[in-house]
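Field reference: sequence -> structure
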Amino acid sequence: MLLKFFNRGTGKGQTAVEYLLKETDTNGIKREPQPELLAGDPQQVINLIDSLDFKHKYNSGVISFAPTDNPTPAEQQAIIDSFEQTAFAGLQTDQYSILWIKHCHTNSNRVELHFITPRVELTTGKSLNIAPPGWDNYFRPWRDECNESHQWASPDDPNRARTYHPGYHALIDAQNLRLSESGQPIQTREDYRKVITNYLGENIKLGHINNREDIIQTLKQTGFEITRTGQDYLTVYREDIGQKVRLKGGIYSASWRLGERLTTETSSRQSEDRTDSQSRIRQTQTELAARIQQRTQYHHSRYTTAETEDRDSTQVVSPPTRTNSYEPLSRFLHRQLGDDSLLSQPTPTDTDSTERSEPIEPEDLGDRTVPNRPREIHHPPTQERIPNRLEVQEQTLLKALDNEDEPTRTRTTANLIQLCHSIRTGQTTTKRTNRQLTDTNSILTTINQQLEQQSRTIAECLSRHQQHLTRLKMKREQELERFKTEINLVEYAQHQGYQLDKNKTSQNCIVLKDNAGDKILIGRHIADDHYFYYSVRDDRDSGSIIDFVQKRKNFNLGEVRKELRPWINNSYSPTSRTANESIPQPKPVTRDRHKTLVEFESFSESAYHPYLKTRGISQQTATAKRFERTIYSDRRNNAIFPHLDREGVCGYEIRNQDFKGFSSGGTKGLWCSRSFPSDSRLVICESPIDCLSYHQIYPNDKTRYLATGGSISELQKDLLKGAFEKIHAQGGEIILAVDRDDAGDKLTLELLKIAPEGARISLAIPQDLKDWNEVLKAKIVEHRQQQIQPSQSRGMELGM
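Structure field:
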């Protein structure tokens, strides 16, 4: 085992803690097993670290064990407690905060106990550094004492021979093993150890086991796997137990022999090793105690408050040392071996009892008192075989028969004959019962086979039924899909009394009305080719043909199926129209396009919108035949200017005194005035208001108007190119009446690029004002001033 402090501590607490707890390492490789939080509150540690204004905010490090150390969970907790008592000597647990995280993801089964602690004493807020310069010298005695006590690998002596290897931590406890003599289920490793030890003890009594090699062979014969062997332990595993069990000390020692003692040489060498080990332990403990005492005094002098002084006065601070005094051999064996300790003691005899009944005088050992003597394991001498209980009873019975008279012998013989008869009768009954049980078992086997066959038959029926239901469900879903795609909703609506509004209908949107005043718009989704409808009167009335039928006839889904099946099975014959009458089919569009059409259908055409008056547009201009169906009003009294593409309305501009916008989901096309065959000029402006203003300033019955709504897209370029080619083919003129700014100049260059070669193009740009609406408003002001001046002149003449 070794201890290392990392050269970090100036960053954020979140980064340091998450590095220890996250599922992957710095290379992105998943840690297996995952890090395990042993102690501490991660969020509390993060908050403490981030709240400090010190440059060095935390200490972090690791206690790393060699793969062969393999500390148990209890040993890991003990080493954590010991480290805290050493590092925070003299402090209570509420005076510091520390986080412990266990890593076992290395390929060599190495256990690493990582820790991170904020560098602050919690009661005073002062800096607390547990690893100042020279920390290695302070913690070395603690490290050496732990390694010596547990026989762990030392970084200072990597080549030393080791005879003790602690086992793995507890795995999942098995619950099905029934080996205990009491017949109770085994729940813990200690139960397994007792059962295995008792079983081996019986074999030792019977003379089947004489040494540890015999123990290993016996365990293998009973189904155990020997996973590890050591000088004083065996680790075994069996599948029905489900976990490894370590058998330690006593009969499991490599040197154990039945009836033999350690040789003088072995005993002497073990005694010397123990003496050297204990000497090193006492030396490191002495050095560690002195250093802990120094740190305790320093911590008390630096962090003592009124509260901690009162608390410390009632407590005794002691270094985390281990007791190394020896104990009697019998107590040691019982503590280490449990039930095994009985096997290491000689079986008492009558002679021993007699000898033990006499008082034993204590021997004066001088310096060789029990705590100072090396321990010696005593192996019992070979004893003579003791007759078992049956043999004793047999000898007693024969002796009684020899001493009794003939009547007694006769009576005993009669009793034996009766006993034999009873035994034979019992055997006959047992055989008969066994035959009945065999017959019953055969019947149960037959019944079980029949039940299994019935179960398979039922499972097959259920499977076929499930497949049938799946096919039926798919068929019903396919039927609904056919309703939505194969039935022309326009035709079905006409069958229900709706009539086509040809003036409002476009190739993307079919408009129908009924006698009750309901108005619907029908289209098709480009994504799934479903027919759908929207009601202009009710926003909630929309959906597929299924929704159309349910909301108008109040049908459930089953009744809807009956209603629509004739329409997909070719059994419906139209009665409300002539055979030659064609039913329009809407061209598939996106949902946004159809939403725009539905919204636009709810607008009303405006003869003279108030917004136009504020911009200087006269009623004569707004109501001119040239601008019919180009200006609308919505429910909020906003002015609406529709944009068109080759398929109809694709979006609309929204204008008011304080608002300017475009339809949500719509696409910019071109605002277009009406066109007539006699038109000879085409005026292009940036907005509909500019087109109306230009017409009011320069009225001409042979001029058509287009507005781009600002900068132009590729779609708009294509639409403008078609309009240019059309007016050019008629021999007309193209007038570019754009704004007097950078955007207008850019638009002019783009329009010139798409104009056909040889076309007559004129530029009409305001001289001193930004756009044509400002020119119009300036002319209106000028005209009013001209009207005021003559009236003032006439007044002056009358006064004279």
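Note: The radius of gyration is 53 Å.
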